Structure formats: C-alpha cells, structure tokens
Amino acid sequence: MSSPGARRPAPRAEVALMAGYHSPQIDVAVRLNTNEAPEPPPAALLDELCGALAGVSLNRYPDREALELRAAVGAQHGVGAEHVYCANGSNEVLQAICLAYGGAGRSAAVFEPSYALHPHIARLTGMTVIEGARDEELLVDESELARVLTAGGRFGPADPAIVFLCSPNNPTGRAEPRDTVERVVASAPGLVVVDEAYGQFARWSASELLPDNPHLVVVRTFSKTWSLAGLRLGYAIADAEVVDALFRVTLPYHLDAVKQLAGRLALRHVDEMRERVARISAERERVVHALRALGLRPFPSDANFVLFEVTGHDAREVWRSLVRQSVLVRDVSGFPRLARCLRVTIGTAAEDDAFLAALGVALS
Questions:
Q1: Phi/psi at 104 (5° precision)
Q2: CA-closest candidate to residue 111, choices 147, 156, 144
C-alpha cells in the first residue's frame, strides 16, 4: 500500500536554488559576508520609532498601498508616489517585476557574474534566461550586449522582455558607466531593470534617465546604506503604469504598518546616511591598500564590499582558514570567472583589522 506522500507531486525544477547562493550563517566573531552596514541606524531614529509605535493600530490592516511611505520615498527622488512601488526588500520588488512582465515564453537577460537572484527569480516565474558575459574589467561587454539584445523575436525566448543590470554590480563592485546603461536603455526590446542596491556609493544613478524612458525601472533597498537590513524594505522607481502592473501581482496588505512607519522615519535621517556612506567608502580604500600589500588583487569597487583574487592560493581553502579564525567573508569562487576570488564586506575598522590579520595567517 503506497503512503499518502507517494501521491505528492515533486516541486517544479525551477524551485531548486542554484548551488552556493545562500550565504552561510555561522557563529563567528567577525561577520563580513552579506554586505550589511557595519553601524546600526542612528539612535535618534530608534528613539523616534519606539515613541511612534504606541500610535500604530496593530488590530487594523496597514495602508494597503503604503501611500505615505511611497510619497516619502518619491520625495527623495523628485517623483510622486505614483512612481514608487515598495515591497519587503528589493528581492520582492524583483519578484513582482518578473511576475508582471515575465512568465513562460518570455526571457530575461543577465550579464555574468552578477547578482544570483536575478536569473533565479526569472526562472522561478517560468522565464528563459539569456546569459551575457562581462569583459576583462568585469563590466558589461559591448559585443555581448549586442548579441543578447538582438537575439530573436519580440519577447520570445531569445529576445528579452526584461534586461537586468546590477550597478554597482554584486559581487564584482563596479558601477556601470552611464554610456553603457544609456545604450542598454536605448536598444532593449523590453523592460530594463537597474538594481541599485548599493546606489548611494556610486557617482551616478540610472534614476537620472527615468523621465525619458518609461521602460526603465530603478530598484533600491534600505538594507545597505540605511543600516536597515533587518527591516526588509526595498522599492522601485518607475513609470506609473509599471508601478500599477507591479501592484496587480502583489498580495493585499503586503507591507506591515511597523515597516511602513520605520521606512518613513528613516528618510528623515538622510544626512546621517550620507555620512555613513562616506565613512564606509574611506574605510574601503584602506582595506584595498592593505589587500594589495598582502600581494592580492582587489578589484575596483563602487560599493561597500571588495572583490579580491587570492593569487596563487585556493580561494576555498583561504575561506576555510578565515572561518577557523572566526572571520566570515563570502566565497564567490563558484561564480563564473571568479574561481580564485573572495568578497569581503567593509566593516568597522576593528573588524577589518581582524579580517586582514586572519587573512595574513591564511596566506602564510
């Protein structure tokens, strides 16, 4: 007699997350593997949030459309609330984009190595993924761009309905030059999604191109520069018709009242955020110089992390040695073209000193 479980269908093949995406959660003294901010949010913000929580009616559903939060986010970018879509982290924003504009019979383009969730979410929503390569400097390759964007029929499996750019790119760190993004926006057959999770570290933003390009979407998060990874809040800036489409695939009341409140309050502390970005950027350059002094090859970064090649060493073995010394960085050696590479998040000066000391031991 067969068990009831024998009648259970197998999960779809797309559900299997690509190997190595999830960052290990290991109990270590120094955690520099997930690109979180090294400092907590301002104490004044936490005080404001605690004081305001008493006024939240937790017995009532939150504002379904998060209008106040969207208006506050839009004010930061010079647009109205109708151009803003908010969700539970930028990954949920990406999921909504793929649900609204992807699906079976459509394709998404990515340029590897890049953020692993772009192709994964696309596949989960039934899309075919077209992979383009990056050049020797790990920027989008122009010949690959032409190949990917002109591959086939309108929105079919070979012609992307969505083109993903990550700028600054994760895990490599570089922001795409403006002229590259402009070429993509000008020639893409469908939606262009620029993931700017680390956008405040870059010298320019694709949001500057939004007024003339209704098929462009810029995605950002509160997790990195706002020191609010635990809040899980992200957003997209886009044409009002795109925002409307994203809401059509969103579950009702998806943003809780506390999250909406915290997001609005955080936006009152822009100056503190910018000062934190400046401190992290300065510390990043110190770490880059130290990596060079160890004989390693750090790649240029416009983010709060540094990709580096452990020249002459096995990256996985170096990673294991760091873990044994209670230091956790990201092993990215499984990504395309990054076989000897690790990625370190910029932490506090003390955390970075501990990392560099442990790295010296791992290399000796």
A1: -60, 140
A2: 144
Question: Is residue 268 scored above 60 in pLDDT?
Answer: yes
**What is the pLDDT, as a whole number, of residue 190?**
94
Looking at the domain assignment, is residue 14 inside a domain?
no
State which of 211, 237, 266 marks the end of a domain.
266
Q: Please tell me whether residues 83 and 163 are part of one structural domain.
A: yes
Quick one: 349 and 235 in the same domain?
no
pLDDT at 20 over 90: no
What is the C-alpha to C-alpha distance for residues 109 and 118, in angstroms, rounded to an integer?
A: 9
Q: How many residues does the chain have?
A: 364
Segments forming the whole domain that contains residue 283: 23-41+271-363
Q: Say whether both 76 and 215 belong to one domain.
A: yes
- Residue 156's pLDDT band, with cuts at 50, 70 and 90, is low
The last residue of a domain, from among 221, 236, 266:
266
| pLDDT above 70: residue 154 | no
In whole angstroms, give the CA distance from residue 58 to residue 55: 9
Residue 235 has pLDDT above 60, yes or no: yes
Q: Are 197 and 335 part of one and the same domain?
A: no
- The answer to the question of residue 203 being in a domain is yes
Q: Is residue 13 part of a domain?
A: no
Distance in angstroms (rounded) separating the CA atoms of residues 115 and 130: 14
Assess whether 309 and 253 both reside in one domain.
Answer: no
Q: How far apart are CA 115 and CA 117, in angstroms?
A: 6
pTM: 0.94
With a cut of 50, say whether residue 124 has pLDDT above it: yes
